[in-house]
Amino acid sequence: xxxxxxxNGQEAAPAADPATAQQLIINAQYIKDLSFENPRAPQxxxxxxxxxxxxxxxxxxxxxxxxxxxxxxLTIKVSAKVNDEALFLMELVYGAVVTIRNTAREMxxxxxxxxxxxxxxxxxxxxxxxxTRDGGFPPLMINPIDFTDLLRRNAANAPQPGDTLPxx
Length: 168
What we know:
There is one protein chain. By secondary structure, this protein is of the alpha+beta class. Helix content is 23%, strand content 35%. The chain has 2 helices and 4 strands; from the N terminus they run ββββαα. The protein has a 4-stranded antiparallel beta sheet with strand order 1-4-3-2. β3 (69-82) and β4 form a beta hairpin. α1 (108-134) crosses α2. The chain is elongated and about 60 Å long. The model is unreliable at 1-7 and 161-168 (pLDDT under 50).
Protein backbone atom coordinates (compact mmCIF):
# COMPACT_ATOMS: atom_id res chain seq x y z
CA UNK A 1 0.00 0.00 0.00
CA UNK A 2 1.48 3.30 -1.04
CA UNK A 3 1.43 6.25 1.32
CA UNK A 4 1.07 9.74 -0.05
CA UNK A 5 2.68 12.78 1.43
CA UNK A 6 1.08 16.15 1.79
CA UNK A 7 2.66 19.37 0.52
CA ASN A 8 4.46 19.77 3.85
CA GLY A 9 6.31 16.44 3.50
CA GLN A 10 4.32 14.67 6.23
CA GLU A 11 2.57 11.40 5.53
CA ALA A 12 -1.16 11.69 4.98
CA ALA A 13 -3.48 9.31 6.83
CA PRO A 14 -4.84 6.57 4.59
CA ALA A 15 -8.37 7.31 3.42
CA ALA A 16 -11.11 5.31 5.15
CA ASP A 17 -12.93 2.81 2.96
CA PRO A 18 -16.40 4.35 2.37
CA ALA A 19 -17.96 0.89 2.42
CA THR A 20 -16.89 0.30 6.05
CA ALA A 21 -16.52 3.83 7.44
CA GLN A 22 -19.00 4.93 10.10
CA GLN A 23 -21.52 7.30 8.52
CA LEU A 24 -24.10 9.71 9.88
CA ILE A 25 -26.01 11.28 7.00
CA ILE A 26 -28.75 13.85 7.48
CA ASN A 27 -31.16 13.18 4.62
CA ALA A 28 -33.78 15.81 5.46
CA GLN A 29 -34.77 18.32 8.13
CA TYR A 30 -38.30 19.64 8.49
CA ILE A 31 -40.83 21.36 10.70
CA LYS A 32 -43.26 18.70 11.88
CA ASP A 33 -45.34 21.07 13.98
CA LEU A 34 -45.07 24.76 14.85
CA SER A 35 -47.41 26.61 17.16
CA PHE A 36 -47.15 30.20 18.36
CA GLU A 37 -49.81 31.73 20.58
CA ASN A 38 -50.02 35.37 21.60
CA PRO A 39 -53.16 35.17 23.80
CA ARG A 40 -53.12 38.77 25.06
CA ALA A 41 -52.33 40.58 21.81
CA PRO A 42 -52.25 43.51 21.31
CA GLN A 43 -51.86 44.36 25.02
CA UNK A 44 -48.93 41.93 25.35
CA UNK A 45 -47.02 43.88 22.70
CA UNK A 46 -46.80 47.08 24.78
CA UNK A 47 -43.69 47.86 26.75
CA UNK A 48 -43.61 45.58 29.80
CA UNK A 49 -42.69 47.07 33.17
CA UNK A 50 -41.05 43.85 34.37
CA UNK A 51 -38.93 41.31 32.55
CA UNK A 52 -40.82 38.20 31.49
CA UNK A 53 -40.15 34.77 32.94
CA UNK A 54 -39.21 32.46 30.09
CA UNK A 55 -39.35 28.68 30.51
CA UNK A 56 -37.76 26.48 27.85
CA UNK A 57 -38.18 22.70 27.74
CA UNK A 58 -36.31 20.52 25.27
CA UNK A 59 -36.83 16.86 24.44
CA UNK A 60 -35.32 14.51 21.86
CA UNK A 61 -36.74 11.23 20.58
CA UNK A 62 -35.74 8.86 17.82
CA UNK A 63 -37.39 5.97 16.06
CA UNK A 64 -36.37 3.60 13.31
CA UNK A 65 -38.00 4.10 9.90
CA UNK A 66 -35.95 1.42 8.07
CA UNK A 67 -32.91 -0.75 8.89
CA UNK A 68 -30.42 2.14 8.49
CA UNK A 69 -32.72 5.20 8.65
CA UNK A 70 -34.10 6.93 11.73
CA UNK A 71 -36.35 9.87 12.45
CA UNK A 72 -34.99 12.16 15.15
CA UNK A 73 -37.46 14.65 16.65
CA LEU A 74 -36.34 17.69 18.62
CA THR A 75 -39.19 19.31 20.59
CA ILE A 76 -38.77 22.81 22.00
CA LYS A 77 -41.53 24.29 24.19
CA VAL A 78 -41.32 27.90 25.31
CA SER A 79 -43.60 29.89 27.58
CA ALA A 80 -43.10 33.53 28.49
CA LYS A 81 -45.07 35.11 31.32
CA VAL A 82 -45.27 38.43 33.10
CA ASN A 83 -47.00 38.45 36.50
CA ASP A 84 -48.32 34.92 35.84
CA GLU A 85 -50.01 36.10 32.62
CA ALA A 86 -48.92 34.49 29.36
CA LEU A 87 -47.10 36.72 26.90
CA PHE A 88 -46.59 33.93 24.39
CA LEU A 89 -46.54 30.15 24.13
CA MET A 90 -44.58 28.36 21.47
CA GLU A 91 -43.96 24.76 20.50
CA LEU A 92 -41.65 23.58 17.74
CA VAL A 93 -41.43 19.93 16.75
CA TYR A 94 -38.47 19.74 14.39
CA GLY A 95 -37.56 16.49 12.69
CA ALA A 96 -34.74 14.96 10.71
CA VAL A 97 -34.36 11.72 8.83
CA VAL A 98 -30.85 10.35 9.21
CA THR A 99 -29.01 7.34 7.87
CA ILE A 100 -26.48 5.61 10.10
CA ARG A 101 -24.19 2.99 8.61
CA ASN A 102 -21.38 0.78 9.89
CA THR A 103 -22.03 1.59 13.53
CA ALA A 104 -22.18 -0.70 16.55
CA ARG A 105 -25.65 -0.89 18.10
CA GLU A 106 -24.45 0.56 21.42
CA MET A 107 -23.31 3.70 19.55
CA UNK A 108 -26.81 4.44 18.21
CA UNK A 109 -28.16 6.34 21.27
CA UNK A 110 -25.29 8.88 21.31
CA UNK A 111 -25.50 9.35 17.54
CA UNK A 112 -29.28 9.68 17.46
CA UNK A 113 -29.88 11.57 20.72
CA UNK A 114 -26.73 13.70 20.99
CA UNK A 115 -24.95 14.18 17.66
CA UNK A 116 -28.01 14.47 15.42
CA UNK A 117 -29.85 17.05 17.60
CA UNK A 118 -26.56 18.95 17.97
CA UNK A 119 -26.51 19.28 14.17
CA UNK A 120 -30.24 20.13 14.02
CA UNK A 121 -30.20 22.69 16.84
CA UNK A 122 -28.94 25.77 14.94
CA UNK A 123 -31.81 25.43 12.45
CA UNK A 124 -34.42 24.90 15.19
CA UNK A 125 -32.99 27.84 17.15
CA UNK A 126 -33.39 30.06 14.10
CA UNK A 127 -37.02 29.00 13.68
CA UNK A 128 -37.74 29.86 17.33
CA UNK A 129 -36.03 33.26 16.96
CA UNK A 130 -37.94 34.06 13.76
CA UNK A 131 -41.30 32.96 15.19
CA THR A 132 -40.93 35.06 18.36
CA ARG A 133 -39.82 38.06 16.30
CA ASP A 134 -42.69 37.57 13.84
CA GLY A 135 -45.03 37.28 16.86
CA GLY A 136 -44.12 40.85 17.87
CA PHE A 137 -41.46 40.13 20.50
CA PRO A 138 -37.68 40.36 20.48
CA PRO A 139 -36.17 37.24 18.88
CA LEU A 140 -35.61 34.52 21.47
CA MET A 141 -32.06 33.24 21.08
CA ILE A 142 -31.84 29.93 22.92
CA ASN A 143 -28.44 29.15 24.41
CA PRO A 144 -26.66 26.04 23.12
CA ILE A 145 -27.94 22.82 24.67
CA ASP A 146 -25.80 20.07 26.16
CA PHE A 147 -27.50 17.06 24.55
CA THR A 148 -25.07 14.67 26.28
CA ASP A 149 -26.31 15.89 29.67
CA LEU A 150 -29.93 15.68 28.46
CA LEU A 151 -29.37 12.03 27.41
CA ARG A 152 -27.70 11.26 30.75
CA ARG A 153 -30.56 12.83 32.76
CA ASN A 154 -33.23 11.05 30.70
CA ALA A 155 -31.40 7.72 31.15
CA ALA A 156 -31.19 8.29 34.92
CA ASN A 157 -34.95 8.98 35.08
CA ALA A 158 -35.92 6.04 32.84
CA PRO A 159 -37.38 2.97 34.53
CA GLN A 160 -34.83 0.20 34.95
CA PRO A 161 -35.58 -3.43 34.07
CA GLY A 162 -37.48 -4.97 36.95
CA ASP A 163 -38.81 -1.62 38.19
CA THR A 164 -42.53 -1.44 38.77
CA LEU A 165 -44.17 1.20 36.63
CA PRO A 166 -46.71 3.43 38.34
CA UNK A 167 -50.28 2.68 37.35
CA UNK A 168 -52.37 5.33 35.67
